[in-house]
């Protein structure tokens, strides 16, 4: 049973067809990199998976549970699927530690001691154990993004969605964030990431999805696809990026 | 005829000022609490809640406070209930305040970036948890200056209640003016009393605003 199974997902924004029937299958422990030009629908697909966007047609099931796309209460879904954003979206009025502790304490109703340990554990996992009491505006972009990853991990999701998580970072800070993600991948975390980091997609991903004009244009083994793109669109995309 | 010394005038206005301050305080406290309720209804995704809240806000913003007071005063009378000017003033100003504060606060809440809402959603928070732990603490910072600023409007709004016979500064002043034939002196003194109540509030609003600007620039 795949963790994420999407068949024929369609999405329109008004008269604009953003997704024109997308199929996606993600097994537990897989690291899937989604690439494509801007406007190809990759971020929309990611946001549909955890219910930030609705979809107009198709079948979507997460961890064996069929989604209609019309549910009022998406919280059970969100407990399974964590998300990290391009703009970090840390809560600016809370310290790094409080950012991580908030949801486990309020949503999962864990004890203060348990959430404290959880926050220390996840923050040290992203290499920021010493920043527990720092506010987001006292941290660099790379550190903020790592706190955001720790915050998502503290909810113990089955899969982590990463929406261009290094695109807003200064180039010298990209590495520290990708290192964290790579470690998560090595530990067997299921990752679905929209990314522009082609080398990362090739070296860390188990599967590459190339989206083009609202469809999955090519998919397969990353090394294979980068070395021998089957379609001219992917070939021109990879050569434009590299 | 009774003769009024300057001290007599000031003394009576002092009593009126106490009523003005008291009424403002009640309207602001109760109006703030009710306003929070209206705010929650207004920003609810459920139309059954947001539509009436919107109508409520529109009504109190787009009709004169005096008409609102008349409606309460004579409306209760029509129902056969005798309602005192004090109660009318308190109810009227509370409703008026709640509508304005709800609208001011809505602006502050909706100014919180979309990413904050989405991040809370993605952590499986309920909408109440999202408001309580993420949105309101941030909205509070930006809400303080306009809220304190609006309190000045509430104090000045109490003058209107003189027309339904509530004995605050303006009503007291007009009675003394009629008795002494010195309207200019009496109303000038009344204005001084309003200024004494309102100036610290608007100065506070400015100070808080400056501090928040400084904090943002940090």
Structure notes:
The complex is a heterodimer of chains A (242) and B (218). With 242 residues, chain A is α/β, with parallel strands linked by helices. Chain A has helices spanning 42-49, 75-80, 96-106, 112-125, 141-153, 171-186, 198-204, 222-227, 232-241, and strands at residues 4-13, 16-26, 31-36, 57-62, 65-67, 81-84, 159-163, 190-194, 207-212, 215-220. Chain A has a six-stranded mixed β-sheet, sandwiched between helices. In chain A, helix 3 (96-106) packs across helix 4 (112-125), helix 4 packs across helix 5 (141-153) and helix 5 runs parallel beside helix 6. The longest helix of chain B has 37 residues, at 6-42. Chain B has 218 residues and is mainly alpha-helical. The mean pLDDT of chain B is 92. Chain B has helices spanning 6-42, 47-62, 65-78, 85-110, 114-122, 127-157, 169-180, 183-217. The radius of gyration of chain B is 21 Å and the shape is flat. The A-B interface holds A 50-52, 74-76, 78-79, 82-83, 85, 87, 89-93, 102-103, 106-107, 137, 148, 151-152, 155 and B 113, 115-116, 118-119, 121-126, 129, 133-134, 137-138, 141, 218.
CATH topology of chain A: Rossmann fold
Mean pLDDT of chain A: 93
**What radius of gyration of chain B results from the CA coordinates?**
21 Å
- Number of DSSP strands of chain A? 10
Largest sheet composition of chain B: none
Q: What is the makeup of the main sheet of chain A?
A: 6 strands, mixed
| Oligomeric form | heterodimer
Protein traits:
heterodimer; A: 242 residues; alpha/beta; Rossmann fold; six-stranded mixed sheet; four-stranded antiparallel sheet; 10 strands; 26% strand; B: 218 residues; mainly alpha; MetI-like fold
Describe what is shown at a glance.
Chain A has 242 residues and is an alpha/beta fold. Helix content of chain A is 38%, strand content 26%.
Furnish the topology, listing elements before pairings.
The complex is a heterodimer of chains A (242) and B (218).
Chain A: E1 4-13, E2 16-26, E3 31-36, H1 42-49, E4 57-62, E5 65-67, H2 75-80, E6 81-84, H3 96-106, H4 112-125, H5 141-153, E7 159-163, H6 171-186, E8 190-194, H7 198-204, E9 207-212, E10 215-220, H8 222-227, H9 232-241
Parallel strand pairs in A: 3-8, 3-9, 6-7, 7-8
Antiparallel strand pairs in A: 1-2, 1-4, 4-5, 9-10
Helix pairs in contact in A: 3-4, 3-5, 4-5, 5-6
Chain B: H1 6-42, H2 47-62, H3 65-78, H4 85-110, H5 114-122, H6 127-157, H7 169-180, H8 183-217
Helix pairs in contact in B: 1-2, 1-4, 1-7, 1-8, 2-4, 3-4, 4-6, 5-6, 6-8, 7-8
